[in-house]
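Hi R.,

Here are the chain sequences for the assembly we discussed:
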Amino acid sequence: MTPGAISLKRRLALWLVVIVAGLGTLLLIEAYTSARKAANRALDGQLEAASLTIAESLQWPDGVPTLEMPASALQILATPWQERVFYWLRADNGRIITRNADLPITAMMAREARADTVYRDADLDGVPIRLAGREVNSAGWDTQEPVQLWVGHTRQGRDVLAGELFEKSATRFAAMVMITAVLVTIAMFTALAPLKQLRRALRARRADDIRPLHLGVPREMQELVDTLNRLFSDQRNHREMLLRFIADASHQLKTPLAGLQSTSELALASEDPAAWRRALATVHESAGRTSRLAGQMLSLTRLDHLGPAHERHPLALDRLLREVVTDWAEREASHAHDLGLDIQTPRPVWVEGEAWALAELLHNWIDNACRYTPPGSTITLTLASVDNAVRLSIEDDGPGVPADVIARLTRPFERGQRQDTEGSGLGLAIADSIAHRHGTHITVAACQPHGLRLSLDLARGAPPSETSA
Amino acid sequence: MTWQRAIHTGRTAARARPSGWLITGALIGLLAGLAASSPAEARTALVVEAALDRDVFEPVLAAFAAENPQLDVDYRDRSTLTVDQRARDRDDPPDVVISSAMPWQMALSNEGLAQPLDVPEAAEWPAWAKWRDEVFGFTFEPIVMAYRLELASHMPPPETHRDLLHLFTDYRELLAGRLTTYSPEESGVGYLLAQQDARYTPRAWDLFTAMDAADVQPERTTRQMLEGLSDGRYWLGYNLLGSYAMVWAQTHPDIIVQVPNDYSLVLMRMAFVHRDAPHPSAAKRFVAFLLSQRGQHIMAGGTPLFSVRDDVIGPYTAQRLRDQVGDHLYPIPINATLLAFVDPLRRQAFLDRWRRERQASHAR
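And here is the predicted structure of the full complex:
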């Protein structure tokens, strides 16, 4: 885990907090407004009741409105919260009938009250109050003046009621948050349990234990386990290969060393200097073979361990090929063979590669061909264009190898069931490693009527720039 | 329950009489000059505007002064009208307002002139005796009738409102001009009591009419009625403040105080701290003292004002009164209904009817 990474739990908790805070703010605002609305609704009813009671007591003796203020109306207005109460009655001609406070009734409010009962928030000497207004009309024998009737009270009860309602909502919300937090915690632990299980399983393993994992994990995590198991399987294969290589290498080294021992023993037992000389010649030849074998094993190991951080440079493949073939043509080992070169592409052919490695590959190919074909065989190296790549191949008309061996041919110490040569069995393995380093692979195919063809494709590269050349 | 005490007639004190207003103080201070001549002091002078006789209230004031030596209480004994006017004085507001004119005290609170009292005494005060935690009824004064001893030799002494109606009807000639009651026109308390009577029973109007027929002589204060009784001008008084009448009867044995046996109104003196009190903390301390066990204890023992608190023991407590009189005590409720009484239109309608009945009965 990188130092900046946030734990899953923290990330989940953070999201929860963000969601709860955002949603909570909205919910609480909504709860506050609805609490105020509910309180207003409840107590506006009191205003209306008081207003009705007063309206009932209105009388129009001689067509002029008058009122004997009903005590109960004021008690209704006061509510159980003992509000300060206000009333204000005005005849249509603007004459105040009676009032106990100079309520801030505007012409606009009076006009609205004409149609229906209206409720208004207002302010009386800095004290917020709630007003209800209506116009009272009555049928009668004479024409009667309508009366504007406004009643009001302070907001204490509304504030208390709204506060209680809001408190209830807030408490419910807080409880909900707590329950959610608990549930999320539980869910988090449950959801993350397989991860923990996997961690435990991996931690409990010995370093060399690369058996596949078998865990009952959710589907989402099964992919991770599968990937891990694939990795384990690759490791296992690699390790097996390595062990086989070591076993083969030991075996290969053991044989010549045993030969050396028996030859030297025989020579030591003899008194004949000629026998000594023969033995020495044998020892010399065997040591040279063994030394080359060790060298090749070394180069194969080195290739495998060089890692990917090698440097590739633009390389004229045709030139390299010509150099190597020319070199081999002069060697004694190829004199019995007909070594040919066929460059079918326009020159120069540029590829990205390591010159020493590709040269080694070509050497190994030619060496192999010379070694495993009878004298007089024709060996042809070809460079051809294939789409965007160039194809480098070697072909001989030797006996070839059985089809079932072809696939194994690039393994170390595989000699195509031929024990009659002095080859180490590593040449093709090394060549294959080099091909892998260049992002390609060696294709082995049989030729008709007999013989073997090895080939590999290399991507064309850009020619070197003037500065770097 | 009847109080009968020896009487010493002829004791009349000088009184302040604010004129030109309908609301006249029901309870007038004996010494009007006292309040006016109170000296301005450098120390905190707590201004108490009260419609409550100083000589009745003196023990409470003395106890408060003893407990708060740093405070000078400027106690101004006024009529209910003056108290109401003073409470509305924006330039020179008092600290504490005390009055027996309950509707007017309620109206002052309703107009926002009182401030809430946030002390434990206020919180524990019974809910029926307070409003908005601003105005507190701190006394429990029964409304009584009083008569001269000689009345009993001419007619059966009244014990109920019904008895009164019968007396007024049966002995109209004998009682003519010898009846007195609170004037609803000239006294706020009188108006309140008449309104409350009319509210409890429609037959109250029969009583009022019968009284008018017997040529009732309305007075502005309980004290004036008591003096008239002691003078022999009146034989029978209706709707007197029991607190004053009982004390009076203790020194005037020919006056008999009767708490009505059918129903008896109870008036509560109401106090509040003024919104613009110059000395709010001292004012709150004063009102809190009135409500405290100590203050109430003095009212129960040293004054006839009757303590409201249940945990106070003394001769004058609401509890004791209930035990003696029974369950027909009807305290005038402290709630918004009182505000209807101060509505000018309603007041006018009531007084108009009062005058109509009076003229009608005189015409008969």
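Chain A has three domains: 8-164, 230-305, 313-459. The interface with chain B takes residues 66-75, 77-78, 82, 84-85, 97-98, 100-101, 125, 127 of chain A (CB under 8 Å).

Let me know if anything looks off.

Best,
T.
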